[in-house]
Amino acid sequence: MKAMGLFPAVMSGDDMKYKISSSERAAASAAETETKAMLHLICYDDNQDGITNFAIDFFNDVTGMDKLAAHLYDVQSKGSSSGIGPKELGEDLVTLYKNYVSEFKDFFVKYILFMQKVTSTVKDDPELSEFKFADMKDEAQKDVRASFVKACKSKAYIDDSKLTDASINAFLNSVAFVVSKPDREDYIRPLIKNNVTLSASDEDLRAIFNEIRKKQTGIKTNSKVEGIELKYPDEVFHYNRVIRRSDIVLLAISRIINTNPLEQGIPKPFASIYSGIAEDERDEIIEKCQADLAKQMCNVNELTPFWSLLASIVSAIRQNPSADVETIYRLIDPNVLEECSGFEDALSYQYFIAIVKGGLKVG
Questions:
Q1: What is the reported pTM?
Q2: 5: three-class secondary structure by DSSP
């Protein structure tokens, strides 16, 4: 992977334009693979902590981005259940190469071909779920390279002058080939840090996956982007083609606690605390509680302690279904509370506890 600074050294925007091409709508089987590809980036990729947004069917099927869109993690996905052979692998690399040699080449830091299945002719070790070009059988390498070059030459958006041996070899050696896990729930367990306390069933996990897939598929109809030109990658945010990591987390949490924690309003279990607040301070305090919760949920570095807090709250509520919010709050390990620095005071914690308690509908 390329070394990364805050921003790559690039030409001025006046000299550099990236043209969007080959956006498409996926069939159902391909859509599932695209969702697995997106979740792979935040559940299994080495760079997962730095990926906060996803461009959908824009630069490619899925492109992970940091918050500034200065570093792009490009994914082409293929959903064939019959298995992709060397010839097809080569053909499927074209859109990744388009970005590898594009005006935005210095922004792209990783290239992934994400597949449902490959044939036995591709690699010697059938157990490898992620592999490089060098891990392929010798004959497979030859076939991949030949079909890749042929496919590139057939595309108008790839200039033949960019198909040098040095560039082709460097690209092929940079690609990560990833075979997807068979089950949808395998892409949700790591996301929610699933444990016995949260007790999310496989059915729950699949339902979360389906909600994420639905959101991802729906984004493709938001706007037409074919043919537009960009000066910088961050212009992707202008086109309503981005899923934020926090959106995915929110979908998962909402399913687990049966309510959207960021909805406006006063949770019923919080009513007694709310009535004890000075009337002229109530609106401001509720807004602060909501802001603290949003800040906690949207901070990638805070997600692990957040899931621990949620698990502790759920456990305390289930063990003490009649206890009020303040009692539940005092049952939580102070170390667990302290780890969640997004919450700035006891009321913010208690507000979230009230949301969870109301969603679980116990007591």
A1: 0.88
A2: coil
